[in-house]
Amino acid sequence: MTKIIRKAPVVNGLRDIQMTEYWDNPLLPAETLQAKLNGSPVDAKQYPKLSEEIQLLQELLFAFGSRRYGKMSMLAMVDILQATDYFLVVNDLEPDSRDHGYADDAEVVHRAFLKHQDELLAFKEWLRVR
């Protein structure tokens, strides 16, 4: 008997999105992040920085996927996708369903922000003036 494995990027992260699916819909990472946030929102009082940063990442992924913004280095996009992946995975180092389950996610996302601060500030400015 063959085991059917269901893909669930909202739970398992970006590994459940094949490149052919991404080529068909480059908004998949942004839509997956949006679905995760709809189902498990970040408590802005408990994690104000994560709430702000993950919203900006979502906007960046939508702008990038729709080809409205491309002034990011490849390295920045790889790191942002890795941080997004970590946020999406439910059972990471600290499962998201536990108290303080987003603490590790907040750290990973913030590291990507610090590493690519200038590029993310430029994107934020682009959002502001568009």
What summary fits the major beta sheet? none
Helix content: 55-70%
Overall 3D geometry? globular
Query: H/E order of the elements?
Result: HHHHHHH
Using DSSP, what is the number of strands?
0
Q: Give the low-confidence spans.
A: none
The whole-number mean of residue pLDDT values reads 92
User: What's the N-to-C terminus distance?
Assistant: 55 Å
What share of residues are in beta strands?
A: under 5%
**CA gyration radius, whole angstroms:** 15 Å
Sheet/helix structural class: mainly alpha
Output the number of helix runs.
7
Could you walk me through the main structural features you see in this protein, from its secondary elements to its overall organization?
The chain has 130 residues and is mainly α. 62% of the residues lie in helices and 0% in strands. It has seven helices and no strands. The protein has helices spanning 9-12, 19-24, 28-39, 48-65, 74-88, 103-115, 117-129. Helix 4 (48-65) crosses helix 6 (103-115) and helix 5 runs antiparallel to helix 6. The model has no long low-confidence stretch (mean pLDDT 92).
Task: Describe the secondary structure blueprint for this structure.
Elements: H1 9-12, H2 19-24, H3 28-39, H4 48-65, H5 74-88, H6 103-115, H7 117-129
Features:
130 residues; mainly alpha; 7 helices; globular
In short:
Helix content is 62%, strand content 0%. With 130 residues, it is mainly α.
